[in-house]
Amino acid sequence: MKTSIKKVMLSFVALVLLAACSSHQSLQEYYVDNSENPNFISIDIPASILNLDNEALTPSEREAISSLKKLNVLAFKKTAENAAEFKVESAKVNAILKSDKFVELMKLKSAYGNGVVKYLGDEDAIDEVIIYGSSKDNGFALIRVLGKDMNPAHLMTLMQALQKSDYKGEGLGSLKDFMRG
User: Fold this and answer.
1) What residue segments make up the domains of the chain, in order of their start?
2) d(Cα 93, Cα 102) in Å, to the nearest integer?
3) How confident is the model at residue 80 (pLDDT cuts 50, 70, 90)?
4) For residues 90 and 42, what is the distance between their CA atoms, to the nearest angstrom?
5) Cα separation of 180 and 107, whole Å?
6) What are phi and psi of 140, to 5 degrees?
7) Nearest to residue 179, comparing CAs of 133, 136, 132, 141?
8) Is the whole model's pTM more than 0.85, yes or no?
């Protein structure tokens, strides 16, 4: 009798553990899992690198900048040698981004490729914006814009503030070299 109770309890614990461990990979897990993969480059960019002159900013631009914490960039450069892996990795990212927890802001299409902008959080208190762009010839880039209580309007305001800034792409040299080389 005690043996069957132990078996039932062990089976129950195993079932709970399996249910707790979702088979769906999160975006954060995907970043971590691929940060050491030689086909990827991973860069964390603090918001402070943007060199924004606080005095020249409008109050709404200051608010937008203060809600921004950092950007995580993960890029995959497609080559003839890794074309099969590119397809697999693209499919993984697309599967992650199809999750119901991501809300789509817009789709992007250009001569260079396609993309999407999504977010996590409430529409008036966004904690993460995801920008995904992919080119069948060059690879893809996945950018996580992390912040606290960002507002969709902040994105446009942030872009306007960046246009005023002295930011010349500092800190992105390794990404540029990776995508070229």
Assistant:
1) 24-180
2) 12
3) very high
4) 16
5) 25
6) -145, 160
7) 141
8) no
Tokens of 130: 């995801």
Picking from 155, 67, 161, 91, the residue whose alpha carbon sits closest to that of residue 117 is 155
Q: Which residue has the tokens 């970043």?
A: 31
Amino acid identity, residue 97? L
- Tell me how long the chain is: 181
Whole-angstrom distance, CA of residue 77 vs CA of residue 88: 13
Q: Is 88 helix (H, G, I), strand (E, B) or coil?
A: helix
Q: Produce one character per residue of 54-63: b if its CB has 16 or more CB atoms within 10 Å, e if not.
A: eeebeeebeb
Lowest mean pLDDT among 32-36, 94-98, 130-134, 165-169: 165-169
Q: How far apart are CA 175 and CA 47, in angstroms?
A: 17
Round to whole Å and give the CA distance between 129 and 104. Answer: 10
Cβ neighbour number for residue 37 with a 10 Å cutoff? 14
Burial 159-173 (b: 16+ CB within 10 A, else e): eebeeeeeeeeeebe
- Using the predicted structure, report yes or no on whether residue 75 has a pLDDT greater than 70: yes
CB 127 within 8 A of CB 146: yes
Residues 50, 159: contact at Cβ < 8 Å?
no
In the predicted model, what is the mean pLDDT of residues 131-139? 93
d(CA 62, CA 154): 10
